[in-house]
Amino acid sequence: MKIAVLFGGDSMERDVSVASAAQVVAALRSRGHTVVAVDAHRGLLSGADERLVLSKGIDRAPPAGEPARGLPALVDASDLRDVELVFLALHGGSGEDGTIQSVLDLARVPYTGSGRLGSAIAWDKDIAKRLFVAAGVPTPEWLMAPAAPERIVEAIGLPAIVKPNGQGSTVGLTLVHASEDLEAAIELAGKYDSEVMIERYIPGRELTVGILEDTPLAVGEIVPATGEIFDYVAKYQAGGADEIFPAAIGPELTARAQALALKAHRALKLEEYSRVDFRLDAGGGLWCLEVNTLPGLSSSSLLPRAAEAVGIDFGELCERICIAALAKARRTR
């Protein structure tokens, strides 16, 4: 099939998107598909431009300053006119919050990943956590700013996680240990989103569960090498974390994590694939943090590792995502 891999976008995760696109383009070509690379700002790339753009790695820190705005490649749909499917290698911002999905729905162009409603719900962490609670998926207690430090300490306690309500890759996130640091953490998070969440910090182990075609993949454990949390450096730099697939947690806990991940995925009305992140506390309790609707597909990403652990190589993973997306498009027409 002819597939356009759409990447770049207007979020702080552009570097991650470029890295995902480089892997996906190569993988789908290796499976015999005709693949074109489309930068959300520059449009369809020539062969030379593709090699130049997709060869860039992920920097140690998120991009500084305001990302570029607007998506001219989608306004002018000529680059997508003769493709059978758009593979969304976008992360964050209007690539993951339902905006791109809405545009492609209006243009009747099939695309990978969840639809506009599920994407928007999952991107809004506050709404997603309300749905977790309604579905019986444990999630750490939270407040939304503005909230006085005294109220935060009383309701949530310290340490606490302060983060933008709509953002990914831990951009703008702070682990706060002292009440006098809350205001600065809220101000930082507010630079990346108009809403800020303050969430109870769960000490323990970091687990993640991929979902593919309504089936949980292997449970993974992430052990950051750079600090207490799985931050931007730990996620994307070599040696930033040990990623263990499958996690050494035993069959009962594995089954429980997979069942909760699938419940969270369904509660948010998600579709072909996602990745669900948990904290495991000292008492064996699992706490759902969030669900990623377009998880990273770079060489260091977690979803491909989860798939590989159950015998699905990267090329097959990408192809199965495409086949499931086309099947969904046929059902909804």
Structure description:
It is a single chain. By secondary structure, this protein is an alpha+beta fold. It folds into 3 domains: 2-113 and 316-332, Rossmann fold; 122-138 and 203-311, ATP-grasp fold, B domain (D-amino Acid Aminotransferase, Chain A, domain 1, 2-Layer Sandwich), CATH 3.30.470.20; 142-200, Dna Ligase, domain 1 (2-Layer Sandwich). The protein is 36% helix and 21% strand. The protein is built from 12 helices and 13 strands. It has a 5-stranded antiparallel beta sheet with strand order 11-10-9-12-13. A hairpin with a 5-residue loop joins strand 12 and strand 13 (286-292). The longest helix has 19 residues, at 314-332. The two termini are 19 Å apart. The relative contact order is 0.15. Residues 67-73 have low confidence and may be disordered.
Give the strand content: 15-25%
CATH fold naming of the largest domain? Rossmann fold
Tell me the number of structural domains: 3
Q: Helical amount among residues, as a percent range? A: 25-40%
* Low-confidence spans: 67-73
Which class do the helix and strand fractions yield? alpha+beta
- The CATH architecture of the largest domain can be given as 3-Layer(aba) Sandwich
**Largest sheet entry:** 5 strands, antiparallel
Rounded mean pLDDT score: 89
What is the overall shape?
Answer: globular
- CATH class membership of the largest domain: Alpha Beta
Radius of gyration: 19 Å
The counted number of beta strands is 13
Q: For the largest sheet, list the strands in their spatial order.
A: 11-10-9-12-13
Series of H and E elements: EHEEHHEHHHEHEEHEEEHEHEEHH
Distance between the termini: 19 Å
- Contiguous helical run count: 12
